[in-house]
Design a protein that fits this description.
about 280 residues; alpha/beta; Pantoate--beta-alanine Ligase, Chain: A,domain 2; six-stranded parallel beta sheet; three-stranded antiparallel beta sheet; about 35% helix; globular; binds pantoate
Length: about 280
Amino acid sequence: MIQLNTIEELHHWRSNLKNIALVPTMGNLHEGHLNLIREAKKKAAYVVVSIFVNPTQFGENEDFGTYPRTLAQDIEKAEQVGADAIFSPSVKEMYPYIEQTVWVTPGEISTQYCGKTRPIHFRGVATVVAKLLNIVQPEWAFFGKKDFQQLVIIKQMVEQLNFRTSIIGIDTKRDEKTGLALSSRNQYLNAQQQEQAPQLYQALLEIKNHILNGNKNFNELCQKAIKTLSKNGWDVDYIEVAKQHNLQSATCEDKDLVVLGAAKLGSTRLIDNIDFSL
Ligand code: PAF
């Protein structure tokens, strides 16, 4: 496996190669990321894993400064599951201008759900993913469904801006016993919060099961879940049922649904979702 730090090195490495997949990450790789790399390797001849903690997707009071940076361990893990190259550029390499003046702005969807409390987040995500896709020019790019809103936004961007990369969403990896979605931010939780954290997934699962049993009163189901979580000490940001393809509010006629949730335990904000079809 080769480590590439500059765009020029990346271009040189990929110049005669075909069938490349990109797995974009911010590092601190866990089993969820490793699963994306394994899936990418099944499809592509070469897999590039980008590791870049992207400053433009963090708000002023968010955890950019403290986001875990574990490059040496990440390189080892990525190599073990078959990555061919790591692309780990500096902030200066990705954003050489003092002020970025051109952005990919994803529209109304980026102001809903997580966008309500993180107003610049998806603009930063879409812009850095556009840059990575242009730099690497992969045939496929792999993203976890854990960040469902991010996945929908990236699919819309690729479709509407005519990128040639196919976007592939992979199911969320969960703790086998509790169902807690794997996330780099889980390590911010203290012991008691770790025990409590699976409640978010359980609440979403309960909503899904009610819907599968014929209850289409989405609003009531979500309000009930919010109440239960709040009682257990969660500060709930949102819990909603939406259409899978564009995340607009679901109606009774919709068949392909996703239950989305975000809530804080202490100062740690967790997100999760479950997609399913009727
Ligand atoms: O999901 C992430 O880790 C990031 O948002 C991404 C897609 C790598 C862009 O920085």
